[in-house]
Specification:
Number of strands: 9
Oligomer: single chain
Bound molecules: adenosine monophosphate
Distance between the termini: 19 Å
Order of helices and strands: HEEHHEHEEEEHEHE
Largest sheet: 5 strands, parallel
Strand content: 25-35%
Number of helices: 6
């Protein structure tokens, strides 16, 4: 990916201090989504490393993982599977719960969404503490999927999400 494309993506991410609570610097991707060139560049940057990886399907994590995961699936010519917050998926589900700073949360997937041995690429917008991506990988691994990698647009390196994700691997386009 040419550096000017990466720079364009970087330029379209807006920092919003103290959202959703004091001390959090929120990476707002809405300026990027509104810019057709930046949006295309982001999807291409996410998909490009996996062109020859024999990916069977892309899994996106609600909600911003859907925004990027779907065009990435299109570029890789594979299907898309959503992982959602509890109670949103209509069919039979399998779920995983994970710890947050305070309390816990859960993610769900349809039981028929992934077959044993399928090679999946997990997509989300941002890797922070890694808790969300890790939970998604655990859910998929429990179904017998092979997790090729977690692809994110933005990585907040100081939160050490990679450590939490290990042994699953992550790849990010922009590091902060
Ligand atoms: P984590 O489980 O800590 O890796 O958090 C990842 C999820 O929270 C991602 O799906 C992001 O959408 C969201 N998130 C966490 N921190 C931020 C941030 N600083 N800016 C924007 N989104 C964030």
């Amino acid at each position: 990916m040419p550096t000017n494309q990466i720079q364009l993506i970087r330029d379209r991410i807006r920092d919003v201090p103290d959202f959703p609570k004091p001390g959090i610097l929120f990476k707002d991707i809405t300026p990027l989504l509104a810019d057709p060139q930046a949006l295309r560049a982001a999807a291409e940057a996410l998909a490009a490393p996996y062109r020859d990886s024999r990916i069977d399907l892309v899994v996106g994590i609600e909600a911003r993982g859907f925004i990027f995961g779907t065009p990435v699936a299109g570029l890789l010519d594979v299907g898309f599977v959503p992982i959602r917050k509890p109670g949103k998926l209509p069919w039979e589900t399998r779920s995983v719960s994970y710890d947050l700073e305070y309390g816990s949360d859960a993610l769900e997937i349809h039981t028929d969404a992934v077959a044993e041995g399928e090679r999946v690429l997990v997509v989300d917008d941002l890797l922070a503490t890694g808790g969300t991506s890790r939970a998604a990988c655990d859910l998929l691994a429990g179904m017998g999927a092979e997790i090729v990698e977690v692809a994110v647009l933005i990585e907040l390196e100081f939160l050490k999400g990679r450590q939490r994700l290990a042994p699953f691997e992550a790849r990010s386009i922009l590091k902060f």
